[in-house]
């Protein structure tokens, strides 16, 4: 299991958010400490979503609740378990922002373990990905680039395009999937998250329910 904890580099601060204690001290759980800063959201969406995101709301350098609201707009983080920790009672702020659970520091070990058992599912980021060979159109700043899509999941897609796209850029992607001989045209907003041979990996922003259902059904077929 992979956990990203947004806290200072201090091990003591991290432990007050449950890191290194109880379940989160197990050898098979990989914890990555990330410094709090205003570019946090941009940094996180460029990576594969973790199985759990821990935010220390008492750290300076970033706005934790704004970060949660922004992350929830991205498909890979829409259902991600996000645990918020603070010395003060900020449970209402956390709930309103879209956090999964709020804990006062330091959390009771049994409460944290119950929350981990209930909310953290390591398969969350392993969405079914399926090959899809066909044309696509990538639009950025009113300019359209023709390309070919090579695979898709509800989290994103891999696209071959000869034009240069900056990693981190927001684009619009248009493509079609065919199910039972019926074509379905898909148009989504996405972020360029990585460069791959001949093209790019895209992470979808929030999908509407119909689009999510179409892509999910195609990936499972």
Strand order of the largest sheet: 6-7-8-11-10-9
Order of helices and strands: EHEHEHEHEHEEEEEEH
Q: What distance lies between the first and last C-alpha atoms, to the nearest angstrom?
A: 28 Å
What overall geometry do the principal axes of the alpha carbons give? elongated
Given the structure, what is the number of helices? 6
Which value, in Å, is the CA radius of gyration? 19 Å
Tell me roughly what share of residues is in helical segments. 10-25%
State the low-pLDDT regions, or none: none
What do these coordinates show?
With 221 residues, the protein is an alpha/beta fold. The protein contains six helices and eleven strands. The chain has helices spanning 11-15, 40-45, 64-71, 91-97, 109-119, 209-220; strands spanning 2-6, 30-34, 52-56, 82-86, 101-104, 130-140, 143-152, 156-160, 170-179, 182-196, 199-204. It has a six-stranded antiparallel beta barrel with strand order 6-7-8-11-10-9. The chain has a five-stranded parallel beta sheet with strand order 2-1-3-4-5, covered by helices on one side. Helix 1 links the parallel strand 1 (2-6) and strand 2 (30-34). The longest helix is centred in the last third of the chain and has 12 residues, at 209-220. The radius of gyration is 19 Å and the shape is elongated. 35% of the residues are buried. The mean pLDDT is 87.
